[in-house]
Automatic annotation (TrEMBL):
Residues 1-17 form the signal peptide. It comes from Chrysemys picta bellii (Western painted turtle). The keyword Transferase does not apply. Pfam families: adh_short. The lineage of its organism: Eukaryota, Metazoa, Chordata, Craniata, Vertebrata. This is Retinol dehydrogenase 16.
């Protein structure tokens, strides 16, 4: 009996290992929906647009965007929604942070996608489409403090519950868990500046408990630790 279970467990991990080693070649050429004749409604096409959205995100903005989407898709509904919002800073040991630091990240990474999804869900149901939520590998394992990891855990949980609820309506809910990509989130200089800014506002008692060497170690590790894990050129740049 135990030998049988051990064999099944070994087979499971072998299959999982094989599956996770698979890679897709030619990613930049994959699924270019716009050039294949599909209508793609981009909420954010430029970096400037992204910054404006981050500063102006509100229920009114989401309502206006939903009305615009309804006008574009008409009675056909919306076949797909992709939620790809993501900021990571402020990030540091949790003791260094305030409630507002957490809320800033959670609003963008978790509450925003939830609000957008609920707003256009009737359109997705009409088309029997799908919702794609971009989470993170850090939605499974917390590497650092701050709102980023909790927000991605939340995206996973929201997606799991929504998936079960939408099944009777023929709507699929998918989660993508990206690994390490070269974006501003993984920029070593931005991470170091974030650590320094948060350190400088700490009470002297808290600074003393960590010691100046702690900050120096963080600044040293930023370009060499997780951020530099894959080495020079190891991360896939994202335009």
């Amino acid at each position: 009996m135990w030998l049988y279970l051990a064999a099944l467990l070994g087979l499971y991990f072998l299959c999982r290992w094989y599956r996770e080693r698979q890679s897709v070649e030619g990613l930049p050429e994959k699924y270019q929906l716009d050039v294949r004749g599909l209508r793609v409604l981009a909420a954010c096409l430029t970096q400037q647009g992204a910054e404006q959205l981050r500063k102006a995100t509100s229920q009114r903005l989401i309502a206006a965007a939903t009305a615009w989407v309804k006008e574009q898709v008409g009675d056909k509904g919306l076949w797909g929604l992709v939620n790809n919002a993501g900021i990571a800073i402020p990030a540091a040991p949790n003791e260094w942070l305030t409630k507002d630091d957490f809320v800033k990240v959670l609003d963008v990474n978790l509450i925003g996608p939830i609000e957008v999804t609920l707003s256009v869900l009737p359109l997705v149901k009409r088309a029997r489409g799908r919702v794609v939520n971009v989470a993170s590998i850090m939605g499974r394992l917390s590497f650092f403090g701050g709102g980023y990891c909790p927000s991605k855990y939340g995206v996973e949980a929201f997606s799991d519950s929504l998936r079960r609820e939408m099944l009777p309506f023929g709507v699929k809910v998918c989660v993508i868990e990206p690994g390490y990509f070269s974006t501003t989130i993984t920029n070593p200089q931005i991470i170091i500046e974030n650590f320094t800014r948060l350190w400088e506002r700490l009470p002297e008692e808290t600074k003393a408990s960590y010691g100046e060497s702690y900050l120096n170690d963080c600044e040293y590790a930023a370009p060499r630790g997780f951020v530099g894990l894959l080495g020079e050129g190891g991360a896939i740049p994202v335009a």
